[in-house]
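Hey L., structure's done. Input below.
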Amino acid sequence: MCNLVKQISFIFFCFCCLCITPTAADPQLVIGFPEDNMSNDWRAAQMNEIEKALLPYTNIRFLMADAAGSIAKNILDIEEMVDQGVQLLFLGPKNPEALKPVIGQLRKKGIYIVLLTRKLSNDDYDVFISPNDVRIAHDAAQFMARHIGARGRILMLEGVPTTTTAQDRRRGFVTAIEQFEAIEIVSRVANYSRADAIAAVEKLLKQGEKFDAIYAHNDAMAAGARFALQRAGIDPASIPTVGIDFLPEAREAILKGEQLASFTYPTCGKMGVDVALKLLQGKKVPRYIEVSSQLVTRKNVNNISTAY
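Output:
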């Protein structure tokens, strides 16, 4: 009985130490996330993770917005959040250059900026949290090159060209492939979109283009490519495909042998909230926080959690 009391006391002590849910007497805080495009599964999951992580904090008002891919709407959303007294913004810029003047005004107002996976073109931010896209792309290139015997044509389906994630996922891949003289890259922009990937792959197939493997900047485009191949009567398993994000559909495709591999890419939502709370409390945090990523293949697919 004494041991049981001690265990309960210990659990209660840990709970009190870990639970920092503000009370009604705490000052009101306003945090916003003007999201670029929540039709993207991964980005929607990122928003959901942030919202869930903020639920216990009753003194925090969380503002959400979806620009549906429109830069003009994204800027308007930011301005509206400023009008509502936002003190910290999560951002994942679609076009860093277009946002530069707006971000400059935010900094003058003393608003904290936490970048999640996508960078700005300058240093007008407090913290950048992300996996290393260049390294992921480099590892993907090495993995694919070995798999196809260091020769052939690889179709690269690119994300939104103005985003730093797409730029890094292209640069890291191309740089690594350059050492393999017998490998050619065929590149098409598909904007991180299933629909755009379907259209791009279908057009290539109709033009009689041949490719031996597919590198997609995200798993949504990899899924679109599989669909296009199937509609053309081509078994997706015959075209080794590597994506990024490790979405649930990628897991199923890997298990079925229809996708060769993926790389985990955490949404960084929960970590972003932890960092945001520290900033609002006046605490120091690292300017760059690198999040780990892992190659997922059929060998380890059952041991790794998907993005959501």
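The chain is about 45% helix and 20% strand. Residues 1-25 have pLDDT under 50 and may be disordered.

-- N.
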